[in-house]
Structure formats: C-alpha cells, structure tokens
Amino acid sequence: MIEAPLILIIAIIIVALIFDFTNGFHDSANSISTVVSTKVLSPRNAVIFAACFNFLAAFGFGVAVADTISSIVQLNIVSTLVIPYIILGALTGAISWNLITWFFGLPTSSSHALIGGLTGAGISAAGLAAIKWSTVGKVALFMVLSPLIGLACGFLFMAAILWITRGSNRPTAESYFKRLQLCSAAAYSFSHGTNDAQKTMGIILPLLFSIGYFGATASTTSLPVPFWLIMVCYTTIALGTLAGGWRIVKTMGYKITKLRPVHGFAAETAGAATILGASAAGIPVSTTHVICSSIMGVGTTMGSSTVKWGMARSIMFAWILTIPVSALIGYAAFAVIRIFVGA
C-alpha cells in the first residue's frame, strides 16, 4: 500500500468534517422537530437555538464516545499506511447512507452508518481481526436497548406528567409547557452534541495517529483528543444543524404522532436523559433512534392508535439496514481505493 501523502490526510480530515456537517444537517430534525411541530419556535429560530446548544456541548461530558469510536479498528493490527484509506472508505459508506436516507426523508442513524462504514472498510483492509468486536457488540446491543429505553422513558415521563397535571386547566398548562419545552429542547440539543460530535473526533484520531501526531510512543488503545479538534468538530456539527433537514423534520414532527407542547417536552426530556447517560458511559448511541422512540412512547399514552405504526415500521426497517448497508459500501469503497493506490 502506497503511503498517503499529507495533502491526502488533510483531504480525508475535510471529508470527515463534511460527514460531521451532514450529521448535524441530517440530525437537526432530532432537536427541532417537536418545537417546530408544536409551534413553540419558528423553523428559523429553532435551528439557531439547536445549533447554539450543539456547540455548547463541547464544554461538557468529556470525550468517552470519541475513545470508543477510535478503538473500533485495532490500530495495533493494521498498518499505519492503510489507516487513512480505511477512514476514507468508512466515510464513503457513512456519507452515502446519510444522503440516501435524507433523500427519502428517513431519520436513520449517522452514528451507526459511521460504525458500519468503519467495520466494512476495516474488514476489507485486514480481515475480521482488524475489528474490535467487543466494541461493535456493545454498539449493536445499545442499538436495540437505547430505543427501548427511550420508548419506556417517554411513556413513563408522559404518564407522570398527565398524573401530576390531571386537575389543571388545559390552556394554562399548555402555556407553561410551551415555555418548558424550550428547556427540554435545549437539553436535547446539548445531549445530541455530547454524543454525535465526538464520533467525528473518533474517526479523525486514527488519521492523526497514522502521521505520528501523537509521537512514536502513543498508545493505540487510548489516543488523546486535542482541544483544537474538539472545537472544530463541535463548530462543524453546529453549522450542519443550522442548515437544517426539513424533509426529516416533517417525518418526525408530523408523521409519527400528533404532538402538543406537553408531548414535545416529555419526548425531549426523556431523549436527553437517555443520551446523556450513554455519553457519560462512552456509548455511541443513535440520537435519532432515541428521539423517535421517545416520541412513540409519549404517543402511546394517548392510545396506541394515535401512533402511525406504518411510518414507525418504515423507520425501523431503515434502522436495521443502516449498519449492514453502510458496511457493504465501506467494504466496496476500500476495495476500489486499494486498486488505485496499490496492494
């Protein structure tokens, strides 16, 4: 394999930041769909609001998720010459899937697309031994658990609110929840930043390792995250959020279930709590899965018939496809790259 020139490394970092931007663009709906659909904020104000809190997440919850992502490909097994091409193949798989699902308006996981792309490109480069399967297994486990946790939290939190406010005047309660939803939207946007911006950091760290940025004695199991990288990744995801993903806003805000401010508050609060817990534990969960399932959980308190389960099934089908399809694209992308740069 031909050594990647520095200009190619820089180009791949730029591609990684494009992925970060598309992550913010694709996932902006997670943060703003409920406040837009309940008319608490206009679409313009909602994206500005969400972007600000995405960026502020840079100053909380550390970099445990970045450590997890950077350890999926075992850097002590693959050659440093191969690492840049693995990352490029992984990003090709992740960005391709993001754009496909954005086109169809499906709120799938940018995180799982990235993990799938990394897995496929790593296997294409050095076989099954190149992948740290315990990390992939943990991600796969929480791919199942996190939506269930979000669903349960959304249902229980909404049920508790309904019990607490059972004797309240509805218009008065609605006015309070409109204001409270600003707090829940801020918490959700903050939690989204804590988890998702770190994934791009985790993809760039092996690139820096491959060019000796951390020195010859750097540990392949725990790479330090430079402050400049933290700032760049959080700024980029915030800019992506500003761009907005209106197709997905429509799906999440209107096509899953009809929302009022109290429902938006409950869904965002349940989602934020789930994601912040995962971020603190270093688990790269899908923020998209969590907020969708939280909305479904809130919707079920009004009766299961109020949730549009046909749309929910379409979304779940896309979730199931995310890792295998992005892995296949990542595998194929690395195979093509290998032809051009030499075996």
Describe the structure.
The protein is mainly alpha-helical. It is 75% helix and 0% strand. It has 12 helices and no strands. It has helices at 6-37, 43-56, 64-70, 83-103, 110-126, 133-164, 170-210, 227-243, 246-255, 261-280, 287-300, 309-341. α2 crosses α7 (170-210) and α4 (83-103) packs antiparallel against α5 (110-126). It is elongated. The N and C termini lie close together (5 Å). The model has no long low-confidence stretch (mean pLDDT 82).
- The class by helix and strand makeup works out as mainly alpha
Helix/strand order, N-terminal first: HHHHHHHHHHHH
Question: Distance between termini?
Answer: 5 Å
Outline type: elongated
Strand content: under 5%
Give Rg in angstroms: 20 Å
Number of helices: 12
Low-pLDDT stretches: none
Mean pLDDT: 82
Largest sheet: none
Give helix % range: over 70%
Number of separate strands: 0
Topology:
Layout: H1 6-37, H2 43-56, H3 64-70, H4 83-103, H5 110-126, H6 133-164, H7 170-210, H8 227-243, H9 246-255, H10 261-280, H11 287-300, H12 309-341
Helix pairs in contact: 1-2, 1-4, 1-7, 1-8, 1-9, 2-7, 2-8, 3-7, 4-5, 4-12, 5-12, 6-10, 6-11, 7-8, 7-10, 10-11
